[in-house]
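Researcher: Re-running this chain for the archive, since the previous output was lost when a drive failed. Same request as before.
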Amino acid sequence: MSEWKSLWKRECGKTAPIYRVLVPDSVNEAVLRAWSARGYRYTAGAPSAIMLTGGMSRNFFRSSVLFKGGTAAGTAVTAGFAAPGGLALVSGFADAALTFGGMGAATALGTGIFAAVTGPKYFRDPKRLSRKNRRKVSGAQWVTPASLGYLPGRKEGRDTDEQRLFHLAVTIARKIVRTRAWTHPILKDHVSRVDLDHAVASIGVRLQELVSLREEIEGIRDAGTAKSVETYLSKLAVAFSSMARRVESMHDYYERLLELDQQLMLLHNSERSRELGDRVLDVLSRTAADDSADWQFRELRIDADSQSSIISGLVAELDQTADDFDDFDTRLAAAQKSVDELEA
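Model: Regenerated structure tokens:
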């Protein structure tokens, strides 16, 4: 069994594939900012399952409800007074028309004031999508189990290696962002250089291409094209293997983060020990004469310095490991060239 398949079996083989990862550049930055403000999860690096909600393409939140709901209600009430007022005026009931007209004018004024107060807040709300961006949202592309050839069910269900590999990539990404090291200040500069979401989404896009192309190739299989079909499929296998190696590199990166987690915990405990030592030394200095205490505590502090040195080395190794999977387009250039030749 290949390494990636062993990883898949161990990491996510017993769980159903539940993910929906946004394809890079299928929506603009304004849409992403609005989704982030609403708390939607749309990237592979989200620490939990990513699900599509109906509200993604609509402006349905507090400031929207207040502005639109309030103005709509005010307009309806105004119309409710204006209609009988107009009818009374036509019928010659001037007093009734004046009464209804005054009430309608009052509600119209109230509605205008309400809109003037709530409108600016709604239009400046970072959760708001403009009309143009709502159209963009409707065209957003997602990597899903179904787009990678997965069908649930016992009898008619099916799965593909492409789906399994991407499921593994998403699972690893979720584990990466849940590590202590990933959110630790010591890795702030390193994390800013690792575009984990783009790396995983790029894998999904390429795997979608492979699934689609393989289905097209299989569709022309007959006695005359069997040899050509097998050749084409072997070329696709080369591209798939390249992506499998990249996912394996992601897992290596995750394991290094776990090592760093352990060292960070040791460092934390060492620094805590140093603080406690200083407090003990302070107590001794105020309550007893112990000339040997100071140098004994100085020796203990060497442990914390040693942990810091180990962590520095691990961070340097992380940079190298991240390069193994972050420069995806370069690493897959040869494999993609084969795919392009097939399409031509």
